[in-house]
Amino acid sequence: MLLRDSYAVVDLKRLKNNIEKVHARFNRPLMAVIKADAYGHGFKEVALYIHQLEYLEMFAVATLEEALELRELNIKKGILVLGAVPTRRAQIELAIENDISLALVSLDYYYLIKSFKLDRPVKVHVKLDTGMGRIGLQNEEQLKELLDDINPGQFEVEGVFTHFATADGDEAEYKKQLEKYYRMTKGMKFKYMHCNNSAGMFYHDEQVSNLGRIGITMYGLDPAGEHRGEFEQVMSLYSNVVMVKKIPKGSKVGYGMTYTAKSDEYIATIPLGYADGFIRKNQGREVYIKGKYYQIVGRVCMDQCMIKVDESVKVGDQVEIFGDHISLDSMAKELDTISYEIICLIKRIPIIYKK
């Protein structure tokens, strides 16, 4: 039962179709990235829907907390924490107890974990910084030092990986990163070797990796934000009109009275605001109601916003914020951001799952 007039719809069939499309092109096992609550889509429902796919080898998350929440769902497949887990013995032991793989993000990080003298080995994937400039070993010398020093009684090295900064854009920089990844891992063999994110798998033909990390394309969004129609957008966001009023010419609308009616106008109010992740910058953009596009007027409030409509709009009418008529990619361009940010900001909104 919905308790709000604003809600999201997540189409799980589209989710699966997107994964299958990437797998058909990449033709190797996949690691599903479901960090940040599956990019706002709901990690529980997403994980339980896809975890039985034969070619889905692992899940990837951002934090140890997210990994533990996955294990609570009785997910048996491997889980990799992509970021740095706090270097405290209790956290590392939690990872071991729950069969969670950690990323070795630097030599300092490695030596801190080594100092705990663990009773059982912790599974790790060695992260390489090939040009992203974020986390990871920076060169061949650091990687050699780590692998020469590592004790199999404390560490089980499952894999090695890197992350591309421009797989969806700058071809020259992508190739530089790929070449460095190849150079750093030359002659090495690991259970998992993965450098490909969604863009790397779909827009390039890299053949050395034996695992691909599928993130944004799983949710039907183009990594470059181009809305090329290659994937099906999984999430839609809706609200319902809760009030319609006619205001006379010259009337002001919203905080700061930033909008003035140029004539007698109809104003509709919907219960969606920046506390739901619908940021104030949406003022001036359009929503879709019964076959027409209408402008958001006045500042977006914490819990509500106003729309300039016509007399055909009534209380109870459905308002599409994004969906089949307003793509997330186009919305991101209008907001001068990326689709990732829009969906990750959404909160406090009930989700209806279509299977």
Give a verbal description of the structure.
Helix 10 packs across helix 11 (about 340-345). The radius of gyration is 24 Å and the shape is elongated. It has two domains: about 10-220, Alpha-Beta Barrel (TIM Barrel), CATH 3.20.20.10; about 235-335, Lyase, Ornithine Decarboxylase, Chain A, domain 1, CATH 2.40.37. Strands 8-7-6-5-4-3-2-9 form an eight-stranded parallel beta sheet. A five-stranded antiparallel beta sheet has the order 11-14-17-16-15, with no helix packed on it. Strands 18-10-1-19 form a four-stranded mixed beta sheet. The longest helix has 15 residues, at about 10-25. Strand 16 (about 290-295) and strand 17 (about 305-310) form a beta hairpin. The protein contains eleven helices and 19 strands. With about 350 residues, it is of the alpha/beta class.
